[in-house]
Design brief:
homodimer, mainly alpha, Multidrug-efflux Transporter Regulator, Chain: A, Domain 2, 70% helix, elongated, DNA-binding, MerR_fam (chains A, B), DNA-bd_dom_put_sf (chains A, B), DNA-binding (chains A, B), MerR-type_HTH_dom (chains A, B)
DNA sequence: CTAAGACCTGACACTGACGTCAGATGCAAG
DNA sequence: CTTGCATCTGACGTCAGTGTCAGGTCTTAG
């Protein structure tokens, strides 16, 4: 499949896919004329990448953990595995932050609702 | 209290405080010589702002919801209140994303642990 | 064959919350 | 008074993922 097809299947822009390749997150085979071709598997890979981006990992960090995706059996992915654990913790901390923020907003919402109830009693 | 004191108490940089003021998130009284002075309350306000930033709100968005913090009884904060609800939802969705990403990492971690156990049986 | 649309590389633009530097002024202690 | 640190304004730098444009090539339907 060509890049436009992959983009639409994975729900990202063509620009992003080229960027991922540039960053070493994605590889492609090239047709004689230089066009990128992908296998169906790449759709899932792109989705995973998107998921990690959404979780706040940078390209650099994703590159670092990819060995755990591509060759989990390699002994040389110790660093990658360590990184994986770190990122898991970071995400957990981030979730806690978001929960705190949501609580703060909930308190604000309650206070405001109370005031509103007073203003328009009916 | 002056800006350096507020910065250290709230755990942010002086630069950030000036930026918050520039964005309309924070106000200060000025001494005759032009130096900013703050009340103790501002510490909490800055912490709230930080919390909202951490939750992914932009300066612009924080400005929009601030009426709910400063004058929850004003009827004219309808837009602000609406925004507050929107952001709460956005945060909830973001939490879901992070949970999904964490699950994905957990699966990766499991797979890698399994491989590792095989490689070094002892 | 030809026109339209997909694709290529390369490059610049953008956004936003700061860091950082420069040059000037304020202020408290010795 | 002076030394040194805090503060002031203004401005430019940064980073990262992506949008977008330009100018050219490829592919495919008619």
């Amino acid at each position: 499949m060509r890049i436009g097809e992959l983009a639409s299947q994975a729900g990202v822009s063509v620009r992003s896919l080229r960027y991922y390749e540039e960053q070493g997150l994605l590889t492609s085979t090239r047709s004689p004329s230089g066009q990128r071709h992908y296998t169906d598997d790449e759709v899932e890979r792109v989705r995973l990448i998107q998921c990690l981006y959404a979780a706040g990992l940078s390209s650099r960090t994703i590159v670092e953990v990819l060995p755990c995706v591509d060759s989990p059996s390699e002994r040389n992915s110790d660093e990658a595995f360590e990184r994986l654990l770190q990122e898991r913790e970071r995400i957990s901390r981030h979730i806690d932050e978001l929960l705190q923020a949501r609580d703060a907003l909930d308190r604000l919402i309650d206070v405001n609702r109370a005031h509103r109830a007073q203003l328009t009693p009916r």
